[in-house]
Amino acid sequence: MKTTILLISSLALASASSLSAAIINNRATAYASYWSASGANDGYGAGLKYSKQFAGFVMGDVRGSYYTFDASSTSVVPLEASINLYLPAFISPYAGVGAGYYFVDSSKPDFENSSGYFAQIGADMELFGLGVFGELRYIDAERVFLDGVTANIGISLKF
Fold it and tell me: What is the residue range of the signal peptide feature (predicted)?
């Protein structure tokens, strides 16, 4: 009898957890960012990201950012989309890949708009619909000067 009650309780808890993850599956995020680009020195910026859970452990996101690279008088506006695998929990690690288009405004003639792709790892920590996140990404762009690592930290709201 005790075993049956324990089994039913465990299944109910697992079902409630799965139902909660299925209901709360959208997230809006604002973040600050650092970009160490190979040809444009260090850049700093900010961005907005919208994430949506598609199934179980799969989440996609779209984002837009703005970066300035003062040493090269360059600004970059990336528009990107990615697909991520994540583990839903209080602290949720994730890894994913994506692609983007990078609009470049620069006084340097060889710095032009570019497309590219990236790989990323990160983690979200959530409590009562609010969260914080951090991530590292490696960008490989068509124009070599944009290749490099970005680090993002931000706050998110689940709805």
Answer: 1-21
Residue 117 domain boundaries: 26-158
Cβ atoms 137, 147 nearer than 8 A? no
For residue range 33-79, what is the model confidence (pLDDT) as tens digits? 999 998 778 999 999 999 999 888 999 999 999 999 987 789 999 99
* Residue 4 domain flag: no
The count of domains in the chain is 1
Q: Is residue 74 part of a domain?
A: yes
Residue 106 and residue 92: Cα distance in Å, rounded? 38
pTM above 0.85, yes or no: no
